[in-house]
Amino acid sequence: MFGRSHVKVILIGNSGVGKSVLMNQYVNHRFTNQYRATIGADFLTKEVQIDKKTITVQIWDTAGTERFQSLGTALYRGSDCCLLVFDITSPSSFLAIDFWRKEFLVQADPPDPAHFPFVVLANKMDLTDRQVPQQQVQDWCKAFNALYFETSAKDVINVDEAFQSAIKLALKNQKESSLSEMNPIQLSSVRSDAVPKTSHACSC
User: Fold this and answer.
1) Residue 57 pLDDT > 60, yes or no?
2) Minimal CA–CA distance to 60: which of 93, 12, 107?
3) CA trace torsion 82, 86, 88, 93 (10° rounding)
4) Which residues of 14-49 are buried (b: 16+ CB within 10 A; e: fewer)?
5) What is the spatial distance between Cα 19 and Cα 9, in angstroms, rounded to a whole number?
6) What is the pTM of this model?
7) Phi, psi angles (nearest 5°) of residue 119
8) In the chain, is it the N or the C terminus that has fewer CB atoms within a 10 Å radius of its CB?
9) 10 Å Cβ neighbour count for 89?
10) Element (DSSP H or E) covering residue 192
């Protein structure tokens, strides 16, 4: 388990918040203004260096519409970190991240949901008509222990930083999950060794 050199991160949020363009900017260093709704899901891979180790990152971009929610279990399972994306000009997209977080935890069913890593991306920072106050986002992230980045795929603001942080959290989550899987076995072994063996020798 410790030797795994790949992680899976997933972007979720309402349609139109910029999940696809963030993924493409990070992986391909490419931006387009042409909006194309993701059908079901899409993914890209990228190799990165983390602590002198090569990590293959699989980044999943999901459709933000209700008609594709039935795909959630298959898409979310196996994720090591989840990026919740909203549009700073759309208050409803920010309010929706609470729904998406709960939906992810139900569908992905991680072993330790209380400590599963989430990263919140306040996207489209290149736009001037911001309608979601920064303090409101910070308060939400504090309540759910989530990292927070203000991003723009167009102006390349905090894109690399956000994904690099998500990857590091994903690796940490993998390691902690591995430890939690190993500990019951190790504990059982220690306990069995600690129990004195019954002596069959007669002391009379």
Assistant:
1) yes
2) 12
3) -150
4) beebbbbbbbbbbeeeebeeeeeebeebbbeeeebe
5) 12
6) 0.81
7) -125, 125
8) C
9) 15
10) helix 159-194
Residue 167: pLDDT band (50, 70, 90) is very high
Copy the structure tokens of residue 84. 């919740």
Percent of the chain topping pLDDT 70: 75
Question: Helices 159-194 and 19-28 meet at what angle, rounded to 10?
Answer: 90
Band the pLDDT of 126: cuts 50, 70, 90: very high
Concatenated DSSP letters of 117-186 = -EEEEEE-TT-S---S-HHHHHHHHHHTT-EEEE-BTTTTBSHHHHHHHHHHHHHHHHHHHHHHHHHHHH
Phi and psi angles of residue 135, each rounded to the nearest 5 degrees, phi first: -60, -35
Collapsed DSSP state (helix, strand, coil) of residue 96: helix
Domains, the chain, ranges and CATH? 6-192 (3.40.50.300)
Query: 75: burial class by Cβ within 10 Å (0-12, 13-18, 19+)?
Result: buried
Written as six digits, the tokens of 186 are: 């190790």
CA distances from 197 to 98, 177, 188, 192, 203 (A): 54, 34, 16, 10, 16
Tell me the three state secondary structure of residue 111: coil
- Is the separation of the CB atoms in 22 and 151 below 8 Å? yes
